[in-house]
Amino acid sequence: MSEPTVLLVEDEENLRMVIADALEARGYRVTAVATGEDGVEAARRTRYNAVLSDLRLPGINGIEVIRSIKSGAPDTECIIITGYATVETAVEAMRAGAFSYLKKPFSQDELFVTLEKALEHSTLRTENTQLRSEMGRNNSSSAIIGTGAEVERVRDTIGKIADTDSTVLILGESGTGKELVAKALHYGSGRANKPFIPINCAAIPEDLLESELFGYEKGAFTGAASMKIGRFEAAHEGTVFLDEIGDMSPALQVKILRVLQEKEFERVGGRHSIKVDVRVIAATNHDLDRAVEEKRFREDLYYRLNVIPVHLPPLRDRKEDIPVLLTHFMAKMSRRKNKTLKGASAEAVRLLEAYDWPGNVRELENLVERLMVLKDADTLITPKDLPERIRRRVREHQRNAEYIATLHGGIDFNAAVDNFERDLILDAMTKVKGVKKKAAEYLGINRTTLIEKMKRKGLLGPSEEPEELIKS
Ligand SMILES: Nc1ncnc2c1ncn2[C@@H]1O[C@H](COP(=O)(O)OP(=O)(O)OP(=O)(O)O)[C@@H](O)[C@H]1O
Ligand SMILES: [Mg+2]
Q1: 242 - beta bridge partners?
Q2: How far is CA 142 from CA 154, 186, 191, in A?
Q3: Ligand 1 binding pocket mutation candidate from 147, 176, 200, 245 (most atoms within 8 A of CB)
């Protein structure tokens, strides 16, 4: 392994030279600077194993230096050097992410011991984060639940593109899982232990967006009492998630385009460019093609962002995922609320499958949360527990279907009988809480006949029993 690198920020020239010499003699590679600003700058260009920073500095102070460095390089261990060690400063330093502090005057030995401890800590943590990222890499897309071909395809795409630096554009209606996919991409990449910074372009007020994204220099405007780094800078070596990109102002579109092209920007009021290494993932629920046609969204930015598109279909187009999502959310809420439900009756599941879910997966998740709160523990979800909008929507669909049947010249006798039988079976299954033996008794037929009928009507999957499917 090459020698550990240390960044030293100390304004007193004598002390700076003495410490740097001592560290170099001990085998460290040292970069020594005199101001906090230079320290932050150096740490952005190079990853250091450790930072030693004086507390009192002419410009930004040591705490701010550490805070800024830690936000970009969380694995770098920071030590504060101070002549005024009070409990307050120590606490503040720790809060900013410092590993420990050195009180002036200190001996060479104290310096080495503190530094070595910090580096040991750092190595350990790097190993841990590597491990975590490895684990994430293998199954980060497994958080995306669904058995249908559509979701399978999305998981497959994530597996292929997560660990690249490609820009990804996620398209889908509200609540289809765009942010979930963005996170799976980040945690499945080599950037997993670096920041994932979401920016909701629609939620930040227009006049604040630029300083939010790019930060500002001290004195850039009234109220800018100290330098602040923006989200792009904070995301250095990580991922920026530009959410609701379709709502971004034309002025900002230009600036984002520049970051994507040149990988650099200026802080508001700043004179020099700052280089960043970020991966950009964008998402929108708008029809961007149309926005481009109507000149509301820059075409060049669109092509930059749309390197790899991922489409998330609305839930109504992948109803096969409803039962597994239901089970998934029931288990999740169950853990969170420390309460269990018996599952959903077959009839209730059928209603959920017939509903068209304008709020997509989020609407289903919210419904499960609500049921988990409202219903008594260990009871079964039945149609009467479902909100009126779901039951009404379904009734409308049924009426439409019947109406269409009359238009086509009457009804299909076999289909009608089949439907009638199906309803009888589902009702029976609901009454006996999904126990097939009891349902068969209730209907006065034998169990194998019941199972046979259920299979033919698609009420039983090829391998799974309905109990497993619908019960949590
Ligand atoms: N396939 C899925 N498996 C498990 N959970 C999902 C899935 N899709 C969405 N969710 C969950 O549904 C909720 C909404 O998803 P998310 O916030 O990612 O949607 P979105 O597309 O970003 O919505 P919006 O456009 O409204 O911001 C989240 O709690 C998410 O975890
Ligand atoms: Mg979202």
Answers
A1: 199, 282
A2: 11, 13, 18
A3: 176
Other CB atoms within a 10 A radius of the CB of residue 83 amount to 11
Counting atoms of ligand 1 from 1, which one is nearest the CA of 151? 1
Mean pLDDT by 10 residues, the chain (472 residues): 87 94 93 96 92 93 93 88 75 81 87 88 66 58 88 93 94 95 92 88 82 88 81 92 91 90 91 92 93 94 93 94 94 86 91 93 94 90 90 72 64 70 80 85 90 82 43 37
**Quick check: 144 and 158 in contact, CB under 8 A?**
yes
Looking at the whole model, is its pTM more than 0.70? no
Q: From ligand 2's centre to the CA of 254, what distance in Å?
A: 23
d(CA 399, CA 406): 11
The residue nearest atom 15 of ligand 1, judged by CA position, is 177
Whole-number Å distance, alpha carbon 243 to ligand 2 midpoint, is 6
CA distance 434 to 213: 54
Residues 6+ apart with CB under 8 A from 359: 174, 175, 366
Ligand closest to the CA atom of residue 176: 1
CA angle at residue 339 from 335 to 340, to 5 degrees?
Answer: 95
Where do we find the tokens 């609500």?
Answer: 370
SS (H, E, C) 80-135: EEECCCCHHHHHHHHHCCCCEEEECCCCHHHHHHHHHHHHHHHHHHHHHHHHHHHH
Per-residue pLDDT tens digits for 1-39: 568 899 999 999 999 999 999 999 999 999 999 999 999
Instruction: Give, for ligand 1, the residue of 152, 171, 179 to mutate: max count of ligand atoms closer than 8 Å to Cβ.
Output: 179
Q: Which domains does the chain have, with CATH numbers?
A: 5-132 (3.40.50.2300), 145-313 (3.40.50.300), 317-470 (1.10.8.60)
Which residue's C-alpha comes closest to atom 13 of ligand 1?
Answer: 362
CB 43 within 8 A of CB 15: no
* Distance from the alpha carbon of residue 203 to the mean position of ligand 2, in angstroms: 11
The pLDDT of residue 472 is 36
Which whole-number Å values give the CA distances from 138 to 160, 168, 237, in the listed order? 11, 19, 20
Closest ligand to 178 CA?
Answer: 1
Q: Tell me the best of 155, 201, 361 to mutate to test the pocket of ligand 1, counting ligand atoms within 8 Å of each CB and taking the most.
A: 361
3-state class (DSSP) for residue 206: helix
